[in-house]
Amino acid sequence: MNALIRYTFATTVHAQRYLAPVLLFCAGVGISSGNNSGPLPGVYALNAAISLVCATWLTIAVISVEDPVHRAITVVAARSPIRVLAATVAVSALLALGLTVIGLVMPLVLSPRPVSAADLPAGALAHLLCGSLGIAIGLVCSRLVFRRQGYALLVALALAAAALLTTGSPPNTLFKRMANTSDAGDVLPLALALLPAGLAALAVAAVITHVVSVRRD
């Protein structure tokens, strides 16, 4: 499994399709981290929202590195489509973790400000929640599920917008709390409680993607 993850990661890096979403994320974080951007919890909430969109893009890019023929060869070599999908999820998660580090550190570098003990954990949980949801959306909107990428793009945008803007959704609920407080300790329990929802969505999306892709093959 480790060899398969290394292969998937190396193929993704060589194809360089990760550059566009990573650069978009860095640009968004740079804008959100200005001198007058407000308390750190609100900045981290905005960065997490950007990471959801970019994690979706990254996941689709990781899956799209191999065309159907090469992916079929990889599945045969790995002896299981589940292993190949798991490696894809693992690489997408590693890239999302990289976005999390950027989203947490860049605001402190670009605009030094006081940091409480709860700021970084709350920001990390918000990024992990959005990263999980982004990977989930990317899986179900990849070409493993949608043959027409135009439709996949529309569905991905709709799902990302729904996750971020629908009142009562885990990200929307967390962002509102983070945007309206200067003490991240107030939102830390909520962030901990909402993270399993993102992980559950990722698990469901992985199952759906596997079932659809196997039936098509």
Describe this structure in words.
By secondary structure, the chain is an all-alpha fold. It has one domain (2-216). It contains nine helices and no strands. Helix 3 runs antiparallel to helix 5 (81-110) and helix 3 (40-64) packs antiparallel against helix 7. The longest helix has 30 residues, at 81-110. The radius of gyration is 18 Å and the shape is elongated. The relative contact order is 0.16. The chain crosses the membrane at residues 44-63, 84-110, 122-146, 151-170, 190-212. It comes from Actinokineospora diospyrosa.
What order do the helices and strands come in, and which of them pair?
Blueprint (H helix, E strand, L loop, with lengths): L1 H14 L3 H14 L7 H25 L3 H11 L2 H30 L8 H22 L8 H17 L4 H10 L8 H29 L1
**Any idea what the shape is?**
elongated
Computed CA radius of gyration, to the nearest angstrom:
18 Å
Largest sheet entry: none
Count of structural domains: 1
- Strand fraction equals under 5%
Query: What string, H for helix and E for strand, traces the elements in order?
Result: HHHHHHHHH
Number of H- or I-type helical stretches: 9
Q: How much helicity do the residues have? A: over 70%
Mean pLDDT: 88
Parts with pLDDT < 50 across at least 5 consecutive residues = none
What is the strand tally?
Answer: 0
Oligomer: single chain
Structural class: mainly alpha
What is the straight-line distance between the termini? 22 Å
